[in-house]
Amino acid sequence: MTRILVADGSRIHTRLLSESLAREGELKVIPFESDSSGLISAATDREIDVLIISSKLDDQPGRGFEILSELRGIRRDLVSIVLLDSSKDEAVLRAFRAGARGVFDKNDRPELLGKCVQSVCRGQVWASSHHLDILVRGLANTPIIRATNSEGVNLLSERELQVVRCLSEGLTNREIAERLDLSQHTVKNYLFRVFEKLGVSSRVELLSMTLKQSASTQPSDATKSNGRAREESDVIEDLAYAGLPAAQLALAQVYLARRNGPEDLVEAYMWYLVAIERAGKAKDFITNLLTPEQIEESRRKAAAWTPMQKQSSSSGEKLGLQLKRPGSRILRRPTERSPH
After folding, report:
1. 43-46: long-range contacts at Cβ-Cβ below 8 A with a sequence spacing of 24 or more?
2. Cβ distance 141 to 324 under 8 Å?
3. Model pLDDT, residue 220
4. Could you tell me the pTM of the whole model?
């Protein structure tokens, strides 16, 4: 029998969720009704198989992510599901980066939570199509920062790396400060130190270095890290086998970047073919739902997008820009040569 520990944002919600899950019959549900300080101790009990944890605990947004990250280093075998208060990109990415095998929107039907538990216990990933799209895009757009000297000694501290990663996502100093719970003045100081250590004089140069390193990183570099790149590849592979075309394309890119031998090129091309076939089926399905006018409008937009993407990509190579999908933030060249 699967033993589940449930920790929602309030005792009432914890009790209601536990009662709903207990009706499944094959689950032993244990409601956690204390403050979050005792949750790690409760979850490290070897008899607990699954932890269902809210992203917000003790009225602290993100507290659930912090606990989950800490638990990950103590019990890597613990399967976890995060109850999301928000479906914003950052919340979804933080959940998976903290080690979640599934994310469950609190607006979803409660009866689906039992199916979610069953899926993650079988080793599957539970997420909606929207959440999967966020995850794949997040993995694809996260650069791997290499900041070592010729002897391989790390030049940047973990906090400095966090600031650089935030910068690479296009965040302003204020947004970086909010995410990392720092003052803007402290963020500026971190950036000045990064500039000095890496020998750059502006945000543009730093971004350019980041993007070039991200594009040229080989698996040997990822293997030398703390295993995060390997874990992210595992998640992409899970999503690819689940049938998500975006993940299949991302997995093809992983094999292409690694290229340790001919077999990697074969795998890359195989996943590319699979993704194209799946995308083609999706295209046919959507086509049947559209009117001729809507199809023509879609083609016009696609025709306008392609040259725009090429032009932006060419400009990005000169200015150190990072272009994302339409509607997302674009990193723009600052006019000053300072961390502002």
Report:
1. 43/5, 43/67, 43/71, 43/75, 43/78, 44/71, 44/74, 44/75, 45/5
2. yes
3. 45
4. 0.49
Q: Which residues of 245-278 are buried (b: 16+ CB within 10 A; e: fewer)?
A: bbbbbbbbebbeebeeeeebeebbeebbebbeeb
At 98, phi and psi to the nearest 5? -75, -10
User: 182: which DSSP letter?
Assistant: -
- The model's pLDDT over 210-238, given as tens digits with 9 standing for 90+, comes to 655 554 544 444 444 445 444 556 667 76
CA-CA distances (angstroms) from residue 63 to 59, 76, 126, 153, 190? 8, 19, 21, 33, 25
Q: Is the dihedral of CA 179, 182, 186, 190 positive or negative?
A: negative
Parts of the chain with a pLDDT under 70: 46, 139-154, 169-170, 201-205, 207-235, 238, 242-243, 305-340
Torsion of CA 220, 131, 141, 224, to 10 degrees: -20
The rounded distance, in Å, linking the Cα atoms of 166 and 182 is 13
Token reading at 44 = 């490290």
- 149-155 — which CB contacts under 8 Å span 24+ positions? 152/224, 155/197, 155/198
Assign domain 2-127 to its CATH superfamily. Answer: Response regulator (3.40.50.2300)
CATH code for 145-216+291-340?
A: 1.10.10.10
Segments in the chain forming alpha helices (H)? 11-22, 39-43, 63-72, 89-97, 112-121, 129-141, 158-168, 173-180, 184-198, 203-216, 219-224, 228-241, 245-258, 262-289, 292-319
Please name the residue that has the structure tokens 């803007």. 184
- Domain layout of the chain by residue ranges: 2-127, 145-216+291-340
CB 66 within 8 Å of CB 45: no
Give Cα separations from 37 to 76, 172, 219 (angstroms): 20, 33, 38
CB 167 within 8 A of CB 207: yes
